[in-house]
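Sanity check

After download, print the first record. It should look like this:
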Amino acid sequence: MSTEQVGTPNNVGVGGAISLRWAFMLITTLFFMWGVSYGLLDVLNKHFQETLHVTKAQSGLLQGAYFGAYFLVAMPAGYFMSRHGYKAGILAGLALYAIGALLFVPAAMVNNFMMFLFALFVLACGLGCLETAANPYATVLGDARGAERRLNLAQSFNGLGQFVGPMIGGTLFFSQASADEAQSTVKITYVVIACVVIGIALLFKRTALPDIREAEEVSPKHSGQGLWQHKHFVGGVIAQFFYVAAQVGVGAFFINYATEHWQGVTNQSAAYMLSVGMVCFMLGRFFSTWLMGRVSPALILAAYALINIVLCAVVMLGMGDISVIALVAIFFFMSTMFPTIFAMGVKNLGPATKQASSFMIMAIVGGAIMPWFMGRISDTSSTALAYGLPLVCFAVVLFYALSQRKSQ
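Expected structure tokens:
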């Protein structure tokens, strides 16, 4: 079905406004679905340590395969969408998402860690396509002045998915009597996810989405500059790399940290505590979306980064349940960072938006690298000390936020 043509987002009629609103609502389902996938990932990390007897560093390869796929697929996805539009990119991403989820069936049957890594890699290739499409699409479905708020709102439903993921994983993966039963549950969970994803793909296929490629042909604010001459874009890519490294690292070893530093906490209860962190993450996005109507996004980003630097220091001190609570609180103040950095980085880039989006998604590779280093530090020293790496990452985000506040 052909896409519905609309004018520029800043100059649409009533029908166009309704179309943009419906498109935005539909796009938010994608944010929710990849939130569920990411929420399950951190639970799988600890699950495979228990059932496949891999080390913490080896379990960090799950995040390596997951976020490494983002790095590899982002640029091809950007070029594909430049030729065929956002809708085609979304459908391709959903197809890969479903295929990757179904690959969990043979992986669980042979109970092989490498096959699980491959399944996650394929699944994440689909998510990389979806993020390359959905993030910039959400920013341009309306007035450019509301881009940060709009993306934060859409990403709030990603936070909801990240809350649901650990709840599912904690309830199903850690409640089985044997490792074989647990792996069977993993298999069934991902088959159900594949079915839901296929249903969403059919809905997108039958829906006429606004084609906003025409809107992107408006000249960017600094049309005489090349993409890499835009300081806000270059800084955004760097900040995004370090932010995602921090976010993934914080979640990857959350269950390990909680069971080690809060007496009596089991893997299952730690997974539920991770869900509490994801609730904080979700609430933080809704709250920050409201707050951005009153305070500049750059100022909020700077304040949140500074607070997380302090909270990471408390986590490193290993002060029992106090440090675990600080670790949970980090999620609230991480909530707005990805969408705010993304929106700042691609703002006013006109026809270069898709290419810029590809680079911003490639920056997610930071999440592939961080867990391995944190795992090595955890294996050789302590999990608490490993949280010094996210602390450094939040310092980079703070620097970018301050630079953007000056420019604004």
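If your output differs, re-run the checksum step. Summary of this record's structure: The beta strands are 4-5, 210-211.
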